[in-house]
Amino acid sequence: RQYQRRVHGGTVYFNKLFPMGVEAMMEAVGLVASGNAPRIPQDHSQQTYESWCKSKDAQIDWNLPVNEVYNLIRGCNPQPGAATTAAGAVVQIYDCAKDQEANGEPGAVVAVDEDGFTVACVGGGVRVRRVKAGAAKIPAAQYAKEAGVQVGTRLGQ
Q1: What CA–CA distance (Å, rounded) separates 9 from 32?
Q2: Hey, which residues does 119 pair with through a beta bridge?
Q3: Helix, strand or coil for residue 89?
Q4: Which of 36, 62, 82, 148 could form a disulfide with 76 if both were Cys (CB 3.0 to 4.6 A apart)?
Q5: Cβ neighbours of residue 116 closer than 8 Å, sequence gap 6 or more
Q6: Each residue's pLDDT tens digit in the chain (157 positions)?
Q7: Please, what is the end-to-end C-alpha distance for the chain in angstroms?
C-alpha cells in the first residue's frame, strides 16, 4: 500500500521560513547601517495578529475530510501536536501520511502494523507514525502495542 507523505509545519519553518527571515534581517540591518532603510508608515487599519498555535486549535475532529485532518496534524508538528483521545487519555499525533484507500467509521482504527496505525476519516484515513501519550514522542507502532490499540479502537471519544 502506498502512503502519501508531505512536509509538516516544522519543515516549512526550519527549511523555508527561518532561512528567509535570517536573510531578510541581514538585508534590513545592512539598509539601516548604510542609512538607506526605507521609511514606510504602517497602515494600522490593516494590522492583524496571529497568536501561537495552542492546544485548543489542535483538536482532531475525525469526522472531517481526510485532507483537513492530515493538514491539521502536519500544521501542528512539531508543536503543539494535534490532539485526540484514546480510552479517555490525550494522545498527540506528530507524524502521519494520508491513506486514500482506508475505509471505516471516522475515528475508528482500521489497520495496525509494525509501521503504526491508520485511523479512518471522511474520504480516507490517516496513517499515524509518531505520537506522544506521556513524556516523550514515540513511534505509533510502539504506542499501539503498549496502549492496546487494535482494529476497531475508537479515537476522539
Answers
A1: 32
A2: 109, 126
A3: strand
A4: 82
A5: 127, 128, 129, 130, 139, 140, 141, 144
A6: 544 456 667 777 778 888 888 888 888 898 899 999 998 898 999 998 888 878 888 999 999 999 999 999 998 988 899 999 999 999 999 999 999 999 999 999 999 999 999 999 999 999 999 999 988 999 999 999 999 999 999 999 8
A7: 28
- Supply the pTM of this predicted model: 0.75
Residue labelled with grid coordinates 482494529: 151
Count of C-beta atoms within a 10 Å radius of residue 8? 19
Position 102, amino acid: A
HSE-up (13 A, CA, CB side) for residue 40 = 5
Grid coordinates given for 130: 509518531
Instruction: Please choose, from the candidates 106, 99, 101, 104, the residue with its C-alpha nearest in 3D space to the C-alpha of residue 121.
Output: 106
